[in-house]
Write a structure and sequence with these properties.
The complex is a heterodimer of chains A (200) and B (175). Chain A is mainly α and 200 residues long. Chain A is built from nine helices and no strands. The longest helix of chain A has 23 residues. About 10% of the residues of chain A have low confidence. Chain B is mainly alpha-helical. The chains are: A mainly alpha (200), B mainly alpha (175). At the A-B interface, helix 2, helix 3, helix 4, helix 6 and helix 7 of A face helix 1, helix 2 and helix 3 of B.
C-alpha cells in the first residue's frame, strides 16, 4: 500500500512498515521525527558538537539499515534511543570525556544563536529579570548535567528532558526498573548539590 | 523561577519539580543537511514490483539448484547461439534475400562482411578441431584446459556474488 502524502499523522509503526517496502519518504520522516531528541540526548552526553553529529548520524544509519530487525511490538523511540545511548556511552568509554564547556546549541556559531538556544522559557509572561534568571538557571542545569556520571546523565535526560516514564527508560538502558529509579534519585541529589555549590 | 526553588527541594516533590525545570531545557538540532547525509548512507530495499519479480524468479529457480540452473541456461545460450550461427551460415543466400526484401538493400555490405568473417571463423574452428581430433595428446590437453578455465570462472563468479550479498550493515543492539 502506498503511503499518504502527509506522514506526520502516521504512527512510528506504520512509517516503519512503509520504509520496509522501500519508500524513501518514510525513511526521511523517521529522521525528521527523531533527529532533535536523538541529537539532544547524544549532545548532553558527549558535549562535543562534531562528535555528536557523527554519533547521531551513525545512530540513524544503523537504525534505518536494520529496520528489518525492528519488532513492532516495541516502541520505535525506545529502540532508537537505546542505540543512541549505546553510541554515546561507547564514545565516552573510549575517550573518557566527562565535563566540557556549555556553549548553547551545538550548531550555534554566533553569540546571539548561542544565547537563544541556551534555555527556552516555558512562561512567556515572565518579566526580563525572571527571564535572565531562567537563562542563568538553564545554563547552570546544563553544566550540572554535564558533570554527572554518564549513566545518571542518560537517566535524567530521558526522564526529565525527554519525558519518558521509568519503565521505558529501563527498557532503553537495559537496566532493572529499581536501578533506574535509584539512578534518577541520585542524579537529582547530585544535581541539587552541584547547583548549591554553584550558587555559593 | 528562582534558583532557591531548585536548591531547596523537598524529597516528595523531587520528581515533579525536577521535571518542571529540566523539561524547559532546549532541544538541540543537528546542522543543515543532516537528513541528506543520513540518507546517503542508508540502504533501501528495492521497489515492491522488483522484489515481486525477484520472488517469482527465485520461486521458479530454487536457490538450492541455482548453480545447476545458471549452468544449464549458460549452456543453452551457447548452444542456441551456435545453432543460429550455423543456420545463418548454411542458409546465407535465403537470409540475404529476405534481408534485402525487408530493408531494400540497406546494410547489405555490412551483412556480407559479417558473413565472410563468420564463415572464416567457423572454417578455422573446424580446421583446428580436425587437427586436435587427430592428435590425442592435444585433444586431452585442450579438454583439461577448458575444464580448468570453467572451474576457475565458476569459483570467481561464486566469490564475487558472495561478496556482493554480504554488504548489509549489522546491528548489535537488539530490543
Amino acid at each position: 500500500m502506498k503511503p499518504p502524502r502527509d506522514l506526520s499523522d502516521a504512527s512510528d509503526q506504520e512509517i516503519v512498515a512503509w520504509a520496509r517496502t522501500g519508500f524513501e519518504r518514510a525513511y526521511r520522516e523517521l529522521v525528521r521525527r527523531y533527529e532533535r531528541p536523538v541529537f539532544s540526548l547524544i549532545y548532553r552526553m558527549v558535549r562535543d558538537r562534531e562528535r555528536c553529529e557523527d554519533l547521531a548520524q551513525e545512530t540513524f544509519v544503523k537504525v534505518l539499515n536494520a529496520l528489518d530487525s525492528y519488532r513492532p511490538e516495541f516502541k520505535f523511540s525506545s529502540w532508537i534511543f537505546k542505540i543512541a545511548n549505546n553510541a554515546a556511552i561507547d564514545h565516552l568509554r573510549r575517550k573518557e570525556l566527562d565535563t566540557l564547556s556549555l556553549d548553547g546549541a551545538p550548531d550555534a556559531t554566533d553569540p546571539e544563536r548561542r544565547e537563544g538556544t541556551t534555555l527556552q522559557l516555558a512562561d512567556p509572561t515572565e518579566n526580563a529579570l525572571e527571564e535572565l534568571e531562567a537563562r542563568e538557571l538553564g545554563g547552570q542545569i546544563e553544566r550540572a548535567i554535564a558533570q554527572l556520571r554518564p549513566e545518571y546523565r542518560s537517566c535524567i535526560v530521558l526522564r526529565h528532558v525527554e519525558g519518558y516514564p521509568y519503565e521505558e527508560i529501563a527498557e532503553i538502558l537495559e537496566l532493572p526498573l529499581g536501578t533506574v529509579k535509584t539512578y534518577i534519585h541520585r542524579a537529582r541529589v547530585e544535581l541539587r548539590a552541584i547547583l548549591e555549590a554553584a550558587r555559593e | 523561577m528562582k534558583n532557591n526553588d531548585v536548591i531547596q527541594l523537598k524529597p516528595a516533590e523531587e520528581d515533579r519539580v525536577a521535571h518542571r525545570y529540566l523539561s524547559t531545557l532546549p532541544s538541540f538540532a543537528p546542522s543543515a543537511g543532516f537528513e541528506d547525509r543520513v540518507m546517503s548512507q542508508v540502504w533501501r530495499p528495492a521497489p515492491a514490483w522488483l522484489r515481486c519479480t525477484q520472488g517469482a524468479v527465485t520461486g521458479l529457480f530454487p536457490r538450492k539448484h541455482a548453480w545447476t540452473w545458471a549452468g544449464g541456461l549458460a549452456a543453452a545460450s551457447v548452444c542456441s547461439l551456435a545453432i543460429i550461427t550455423a543456420l545463418v551460415v548454411a542458409y546465407s543466400v535465403q537470409v540475404e534475400t529476405a534481408w534485402s526484401a525487408f530493408t531494400g538493400g540497406f546494410g547489405l555490405p555490412a551483412w556480407r562482411t559479417a558473413l565472410s568473417l563468420t564463415i572464416g571463423l567457423v572454417s578455422s574452428v573446424v580446421a583446428y578441431g580436425r587437427l586436435i581430433a587427430l592428435n590425442t595428446t592435444m585433444l586431452i590437453s585442450v579438454g583439461l584446459g577448458t575444464a580448468l578455465v570453467m572451474v576457475v570462472s565458476l569459483l570467481g563468479l561464486h566469490r564475487t556474488m558472495q561478496q556482493h550479498g554480504s554488504g548489509r550493515v549489522a546491528l548489535h543492539a537488539g530490543h
